[in-house]
């Protein structure tokens, strides 16, 4: 699979999984702006945004839920190995 296809699938699965999180630090609407994967698919940087959210708390909550989110990816996306997720605010940094 091409990196762009993997990124699109990861974005879709993560959007649904994040929407299902029941953490008070996660607002109702969190947008996965983009996902960028390293060439070996070992790391996926997930850029998120949310209107009026406390971004440090949101990123902390998503990092805390990383195991659950990675299991969702492994269940729904056919990959040799599930990438480690790294969450960032969409307002920072360029893709890999």
From TrEMBL:
<dbReference type="Pfam" id="PF02033">
    <property type="entry name" value="RBFA"/>
</dbReference>
<protein>
    <recommendedName>
        <fullName>Ribosome-binding factor A</fullName>
    </recommendedName>
</protein>
<dbReference type="InterPro" id="IPR000238">
    <property type="entry name" value="RbfA"/>
</dbReference>
<dbReference type="GO" id="GO:0005829">
    <property type="term" value="C:cytosol"/>
</dbReference>
<keyword id="KW-0690">Ribosome biogenesis</keyword>
<keyword id="KW-0963">Cytoplasm</keyword>
<dbReference type="GO" id="GO:0043024">
    <property type="term" value="F:ribosomal small subunit binding"/>
</dbReference>
<dbReference type="InterPro" id="IPR015946">
    <property type="entry name" value="KH_dom-like_a/b"/>
</dbReference>
<dbReference type="GO" id="GO:0030490">
    <property type="term" value="P:maturation of SSU-rRNA"/>
</dbReference>
<comment type="subunit">
    <text>Monomer. Binds 30S ribosomal subunits, but not 50S ribosomal subunits or 70S ribosomes.</text>
</comment>
<comment type="function">
    <text>One of several proteins that assist in the late maturation steps of the functional core of the 30S ribosomal subunit. Associates with free 30S ribosomal subunits (but not with 30S subunits that are part of 70S ribosomes or polysomes). Required for efficient processing of 16S rRNA. May interact with the 5'-terminal helix region of 16S rRNA.</text>
</comment>
<comment type="similarity">
    <text>Belongs to the RbfA family.</text>
</comment>
<dbReference type="InterPro" id="IPR023799">
    <property type="entry name" value="RbfA_dom_sf"/>
</dbReference>
């Amino acid at each position: 699979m091409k990196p762009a296809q993997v990124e699109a699938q990861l974005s879709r699965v993560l959007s649904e999984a994040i929407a299902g999180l029941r953490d008070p630090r996660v607002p109702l609407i969190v947008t996965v702006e983009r996902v960028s994967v390293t060439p070996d698919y070992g790391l996926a940087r997930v850029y998120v945004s949310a209107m009026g959210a406390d971004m440090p708390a949101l990123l902390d909550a998503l990092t805390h839920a990383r195991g659950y989110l990675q299991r969702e990816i492994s269940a729904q996306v056919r990959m040799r190995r599930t990438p480690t997720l790294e969450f960032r605010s969409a307002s920072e940094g360029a893709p890999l």
